[in-house]
Amino acid sequence: MKIFLTLFGISSGIMVGSGVVAILILIGIVPRMSQVSNTKEFVPFYEMILVIGTFLGGIMSLQDIHLNLGKFSVIISGLCYGVFLGFLSSGLTEIMDYIPVVSRRLKIPVIYLKYVIISLLIGKVLGSFLGRLII
């Protein structure tokens, strides 16, 4: 029974991990981030950090590991988490053509679309912070 559960857990993890990687590749988060920040030479570094962070986050959640690094590290990690979620949500909206469709239906002038995008990103980051504070 333990062998079955072990194989089931490993195969489920591989499937979920493959799905996450497929979504990140489809969205193109890493190339887009490097394009926006003019740091195309760091794409391999960004990809490596993304894989390492995902792996360590999975290990820490499975093993119930807690790090008490102080308030400053919580602020830094929260900012990094917010930036990642902001890029992820903006990538999703870009893929689904959400913003152009909504702007046409609501008849929002093109000049204001950058404010719509910025407000979506700020809302996602603030929502992440509030979610972390409440939990």
From TrEMBL:
Keywords carried by this UniProt record: Membrane, Transmembrane, Transmembrane helix
Domain of life from the UniProt record: Bacteria
Transmembrane segments: 7-30, 42-60, 72-92, 112-134
Record keyword Lipid biosynthesis present: no
Protein's name according to its UniProt entry: Stage V sporulation protein AC
